[in-house]
Write a structure and sequence with these properties.
Strand order of the largest sheet: 1-4
CATH superfamily of the largest domain: Haem peroxidase domain superfamily, animal type
Radius of gyration: 24 Å
CATH class of the largest domain: Mainly Alpha
Number of domains: 2
CATH topology of the largest domain: Myeloperoxidase, subunit C
Helix content: 40-55%
Number of helices: 24
Distance between the termini: 46 Å
CATH architecture of the largest domain: Orthogonal Bundle
Amino acid sequence: MSKPSLFDRASTAYFARVNRTRPWHRLPFVLGLLNLIALREQLRESNLIDTRTPGDPHRSPAATPDTLADGVRRFRTADGSYNDLGDPDMGRAGTRFARNVPLADAWPAEAPAIMTPSPREISRKLMRREEFTPATSLNLLAAAWIQFQTHDWFAHGRETEAAVEIPLEEGDDWFETPMRIPLTKQDTTRVAADDGLPATYINSQTHWWDASSIYGITPERRAEIRTGVDGKLVLKDGQLPLDPATGVALTGFSENWWVGLGLLHTLFTLEHNAICDRLKRDHPAMSEDELFGTAQLINSALLAKIHTVEWTPAIIAHPVLKVAMRANWWGMAGEKVHRRWGRISSSDVISGIPGSHFDHHGAPYQLTEEFAAVYRLHNLLPDTLEVHALADDALVDSMDFEEIILLNAHRVLTSGAKVSDLWYSFGIQHPGAVVLHNFPRWMQDLTLQDGLRLDLAALDIMRDRERGVPRYNQFRRRLHLKPAETFEELTDDPVWAAELAEMYGGDVEQVDLQIGMHAETPPKGFGFSDTAFRVFILMASRRLKSDRFLTDCYTEEYYTRTGLQWIADNTMITVLLRHFPELAKSLEGVPNAFVPWNVSPASGTTTAS
């Protein structure tokens, strides 16, 4: 584990005392910013828990640049290997999730605790949406974006045979008895040295921020999505073609597909191809493989930048966070200084993380089970997509989500509504708030492509229990937060407090993490809880700081001057306008692509909900 400096330890101890009576988000601006830095150092010291087997003989040996093929050194590999040349398997697809809590707290729940209280009853009585509660500061694009990103970061496999049965209580409206939820796919990499330790699970995606959801994680998938000409990706009439094997879009990762993912995957496939055109113009000697590899570096770094300085400040609209997230990318010196003078310091605090020296902070880089848990944001999705015409805001169609998911998504994107109308509609419609009683009802009875029928709300509860993610109060303790002593302390809503007390038999220690986070009153401007934010503080900068392609190799040698300038100059708005210039009036004066756009004149309607 990393060891903070004496200053860091002193500041951590100071703010720990301050936070007993006043949390960071209620402190004056400068103190709040310093408090966040201290919290991050505290979390780095004690909440990066390695789950890999020490001395595993199957681990690949260290590599040096002169022993690698030039393409492996210069570009991202499909499976994420060789990002860290000293530990080539670190962050590779098919490696384990780590933990943000001590292993002693990471044991999966067993019977009867895994069913107490019933995940299905929690779904029905605490999570089900009776009336839509909008997140009025955001647009629906923000909801699609986070799924687009999590598909890049992590995915668990599931067993095809092994499942748990959830008994149904009288009055349940589920049509089958019993409800069966497949178990998470078992980790086949465990060896004798892992005996006596909690279960571990495998990330089927790469752990890196490499846009693997677009580019795939195998050479075979990459070959399928590439044209073989000028480094470009396959498109057909401006859209992703269908994958004959699945019937959904041909892209890197297409599980849980819907129109929102289709729009974003297509947009950044178009962006990749635009980058290739610029690279070929500026660097005509580049080979086809060089064009592809360099364009992936640029495109994935642009995605990381957009998430860091645009999406995050939109969903966590707090003045301290706006400065802190921009500082993650540009440093406290700021964007103007960076653009004029470049890095003025080796410190990532002063000059930003991109281009600084990589640092794993004492633990091998892995995403964590807790990271996956706090990014379950299904509540963001509404029940219907209201399609409005870009020209005059007229309502073109109102589609239930069953009409725009899985196999239906391609049909919506390629027929009927114009794509520009869909983008406009996502820009003006609100997502749902991440609170109790706001889980989409259609997700509580969803049939997947393979015929599996699920209540995703019950599944969310089960997954945390099954994977050993602590319940709410213990999670808070391990993330250096005060646990709730009563239900009234957990939530400001007295009705919710009474409902929680009834569901959990009066024992606040039994409240599940998802339920506690949704009941908790978040800081002002936050789209999710301060509890979830603690994992975010730790992992947001780690995803940048551990990646050599975003630190030591964030240079012209790897990206070209053209590429670094492309990343610096572009935002989500400029990307949208490059490929859909007809959206210009909708985005005019809008400070952030993830907040509500301008409503087109003529009908006089207001922002949709």
